[in-house]
Amino acid sequence: MGVSRRDFLKISGSTLLLGPLAAPAKADAQTPESKTKGATETRTICPYCSVGCGIIVHTKDGKVVNTEGDPEHPINEGTLCPKGASIMQLVQNDTRVLKPMYRAPGADSFKEVEWEWALDKIAKNVKESRDKSFKLTSKSKVKEKQPDGTDKEVEKEFTVNRTDAIAHVGSAALDNEECYLLQKMLRSWGLVYIEHQARI
Amino acid sequence: MTNHWIDFKNADVILVMGANPASNHPISMKWVMRAKEKGAKLIVVDPRFTQTASKADLYAPMRSGTDIAFLGGMVKYITDNNLYFKDYVVNYTNAAFLVNPDFKGPGDLNGLFSGYDEKTRKYDKKTWGYQMGEDGIPKKDPSLKSPNCVFQLLKKHYARYTLDKVSSITGTPKDKLEAVYKLYGSTGRPNKAGTELYAMGWTQHTVGTQNIRTMAIIQLLLGNIGIAGGGINALRGESNVQGSTDHGILFHLLPGYNATPSAALADLNAYIEKFTPKTKDPRSVNWWSNRNKYITSYLKAIYGKAATKENDFGYAWLPKLDEGQNASWLMLFDKMSKGQFDGFFAWGQNPACSGANANKVRKAMSKLKWMVNVNLFDNETASFWKGPGMNPKEIQTEVFMLPCVSSIEKEGSITNSGRLAQWRYKAIEPLGQSKPDAEIMNELFLRVREIYRKEGGKFPAPILNTTWNYGKKINIHDVAKEINGYYLEDVYDKKANPPKLLGKKGELCASFVHLQADGTTSSGNWLFSQSYTQKEGKVINMMARRGKDDPTGLGLYSGWAWAWPVNRRIIYNRASVDLKGNPWDPKRAVVKWDPVKEDPATKKPGVWVGDVPDGPAPPMGDAGKYPFIMKNDGVASIYGPGLNDGPFPEHYEALECPLEENILSKQRINPTIKMFNDKDDAFFSCDTRYPFVATTYRVTEHWQTGVMTRHTPWLLEMQPQQFVEMSRELAAEKSIRSGDRVKIRSGRGEISAVAVVTSRFKPFKIGGQTVHQVGMPWCFGWQYPGDAKSGDSANLLTPTIGDANTMIPESKAFMVNVEKA
Predict the structure, then answer these.
(1) Which of B690, B675, B678, B680 shows the shortest CA–CA distance to B746?
(2) What CA–CA distance (Å, rounded) separates A91 from A84?
(3) Which of A111, A113, B226, B449 is most buried, by the most CB atoms less than 10 A from its CB?
(4) A73 CB contacts (<8 Å, ≥6 apart)?
């Protein structure tokens, strides 16, 4: 990344100025080589709205060099909106977080940490919060049939096997397989406060 | 969606209400315009003249929060003028059902239905039931004349929604109302198709579910459900919000729309008994009678060999809610604000900006001991402790910011709004130390399990018994296969004589039709069974298919990727044909019964051709199966007694509204919404401090809270800062000019924005007085780009209140003031 549209215009503007001075001898030499020549094509689906447009990602040497709408895709037929058309800038982006970060209680900044350390600490936190709060049973009000045939509300103790001390939100941005894994993991821990974008 | 994106091209009339596809789903407009090129008419109803409205044949303005009044008037117009599709209504809906004569509606009870309890704010639905025959089946009057039949009750209910009343509530001029009603009502003929496109403009209201219900009633009256160019189509906002819902990342759902269990359902039998709908009508397929197979196969998928018949397939290991407990979004943050949670995961989501009443959400986070934020970028949630008004020293929350990868650095499937699951491939390796989300889950799960293995702990059984053998580096195909499901034994169709082999032990299930309730099959999500399957021994990832055949010309593209359920592209498609199985409209035949052609499964003559039909049963005829197989009575519900706030949609004002009284009844707001009463939840109606109606929306260049798009230079340059749109009339009143910096205040917060003075908003005439409305995007946040000008989330203004059925917050209608800064 690193070239914003504004920068790009500046660059191309100055190129235009220089252009006539450095005019090459042959016209065909002016045609730049296609940036997708020799690139690997990979098919993907846009990560933004749910129309599900097809995108082709062109890569060279492990880097994205171009993205464009997939002309064979029956929904978008090669077209993309401004968001879908700019995913190259989203992916190769200087402001992405590329190392785990940690903010200690009361601290005024994040610091970079190692994955191993962060994951170990989160796992420990999960266990501590879960064990401390885990409810094998809980009281609920239920209606019970009385001998005279009427319903009466009574409070009873039931098995619930859950923790009320950990909550989770997200995410509609995950792949299906990840969504499935996520709910499997959270429910194995006993969470019931599980929500995401679909609710809001 | 009942239908799919390409199907818009098949419509004669397209109603866009509660959505703005030209801005928010731009490529979908291709298919709206394709329909228009063929002569279709586009209607847009919206408080603002949107980009979609600029392409409309007919635009009608409407005050935010009055959709039911607008559409209720349409129901009246359709029934008064006999525009409904009688054969469809009588045979395929519950219009003929007879309702308990004790049932009373808002016309009788001043805004309430019978059975309301003021103390609990709930209805006792005793009087809402049907009159049952001796055979245990609801009594019917196919002439639709009985005063107790659904159709007559519907007419009576909406008789109050006259043009005068509706116009006075909505602010829509009467001639515009009539023009919309007439044009949309023209699709009630068998050879006409009308479709409706909605999004959060309908869901984010205290009457959100009923907004959609009102349209469902209209579509059923006009025979527009199940047909090509018809349906009710939710334009979902996120690339995989359909899939994430399907897979149960919600407090009330397990994967495949199986309810989460609650405390009193002590064993699997009690669970199955409660969630299996019953019918005594042999003509109803009642598909949910298969619930036992789906829940058992889910338990076998998540607990594997540890799930046995003897231990109830591990049902006890699933966490249970208390009876009646609601653990949805607003409740979650309410509990967080009261200090209930130690820990919190915000995984691929930015609640500090997306949560209604965001100040409450941000403050609530400071009560946490620890938070894990998984995202591509730092954001307002991860950095909440240094946000506006926060003192980091006082905030004791430890925060982990874990970097995940973008969608092209990993492999997997996502499901679009048309239920189409499409496979994505990995284009590059993860950048830096970022990891695919599945890797992060894998590492976390294995670590937690390891601690419980070594140290023990509270109730370790679910952690130790959950199947999780994906290796150190996860192979996502293994997960996709687990979701599809396996035959765990040789599985036979025992009804056949001799029993027929359905699948061999260890093979991938062919489809959910083969799933069993005895533990001999597994499926992580029955709805996705067939998505990654096996045919004649060959494993096929159906979601990766790229077939382009379109034999019907309707754009079904049945060979492209894979749609749930069982690759059906238009659901409820058995309602697109008459009783003999002939399409209502032969030019747009979704399915058709061919009585001569041999059915390859049964080797007998008679088979459906076209889309995958809603079940293989022959056409309904005089004694066959009803078309709406997911409904226990087999027909679609014009009358919906299952909802919390009434079997017919009724107009109530938003929690915050500009009116002292509801023009239609004495009941101003939805009587069944859950009220939040803390200081932070304050709300104000008819208060001179907050005189203007407000709504929120998105812009093409930004997505949701803007985390991904604000970080994309091209997009940020196009839309750099928060703005507020207002009418020329309001701007003149407040001496505001376009470009002025203004403050927008609600009872909960304040934001700064640039004024955009525009004729896209016009003042409304409501109940004889002038009411102004303003609107603003909600895609900005303080954290990035981090200059004061770009602004903060519009959700700092929205109230803590939810829909009576779903608890989706009411972000689309609330009250504010606007002042020059």
Answers:
(1) B690
(2) 12
(3) B226
(4) A53, A54
CA angle B139, B144, B147 (to 5 degrees): 80
Residue whose structure tokens are 């009941």: B667
**b (16+ CB within 10 A) / e for A104-124:** eeebeebeebebeebbebbbe
Cβ distance of B262 and A110 shorter than 8 Å? no
**Tokens 């504010």 found at:** B816
DSSP conformation letters of B538-588: EEEEGGG-B----TTSSS--TTBSEETTTT-SSTTGGGGB-TTS-BSSGGG
Distances in whole angstroms, Cα of residue B656 to Cα of each of B668, B809, B812: 10, 13, 11
Closest CA to B618 of B597, B589, B632: B597
Q: Which amino acid is at B648?
A: F
Residues of chain A contacting B398 with CB distance shorter than 8 Å: 102-105
- Whole-angstrom distance, CA of residue B821 vs CA of residue B818: 9
Contact B459 A190 (CB under 8 A): yes
Residue B66 near residue B170, CB atoms below 8 Å: yes
Tell me which residues of chain A, numbers 57 to 96, contact chain B at a CB-CB cutoff of 8 Å.
57, 59, 62-64, 72, 74-77, 79-84, 86-87, 89-93, 95-96
Which of B221, B301, B657, B736 lies closest to B512 in space, CA to CA?
B301
Name the pLDDT band for A28 (thresholds 50, 70, 90): low
Residues 6+ apart with CB under 8 A from A18: none
For the cut 70, the answer to whether the pLDDT of residue A134 exceeds it is: yes
| pLDDT reported for residue A20 | 45
Positions of chain B with pLDDT lower than 70, given as ranges: none
Q: Which residue do the tokens 């509204």 mark?
A: B657
DSSP annotation string for B626-688: -S-TTSTTSSB-SS-TTSTT-SS----B-SS-S-SS-SS-S--B-TTSPP--SGGG---SS-T
Note whether A168 contacts B385, CB cutoff 8 Å.
no
Q: How far is B26 from chain A (nearest CA, A)?
A: 6
Residue A27's pLDDT is 54
Give backbone dihedrals phi and psi of B124, rounded to 5 degrees, phi first: -90, 115
> Which chain A residues are Cβ-neighbours of B392 within 8 angstroms?
106-108
Q: What count of other Cβ atoms lies within 10 Å of the Cβ of residue B457?
A: 16
Q: Is the pLDDT of residue A108 over 70?
A: yes
Kindly report the number of other CB atoms within 10 A of residue B205's CB atom. 31
What are the tens digits of pLDDT across the range B288-325? Answer: 999 999 999 999 999 999 999 999 999 999 999 999 99
Cα angle, residue A180 at apex, residues A179 and A181 outer, rounded to 5°: 95
What pairs with residue B432 in β-bridges?
A: none
- Measured CA distances, B588 to B9, B193, B227, B656 (Å): 11, 9, 8, 45
Are the Cβ atoms of B555 and A43 closer than 8 angstroms? no
Partner-chain residue, chosen from A90, A107, A138, that has the shortest CB–CB distance to B712? A90
Show the CA angle centred on residue B547, arms to residues B546 and B548, nearest 5°. 115
Which alpha helices (DSSP H) does B25-162 contain, by range? 29-37, 67-80, 86-92, 150-158
With CA atoms as reference, report the closest residue to B382 among B344, B414, B419, B410. B344
Mean pLDDT of A37-51: 97
Give the pLDDT of residue A7: 52
Q: Do A193 and B708 touch (CB under 8 A)?
A: no
User: Residue A13's pLDDT band (boundaries 50, 70, 90)?
Assistant: very low
Q: Which residues contact B675 (CB under 8 A, 6 or more apart)?
A: B121, B801
Question: What pLDDT shows up at residue A9?
Answer: 45
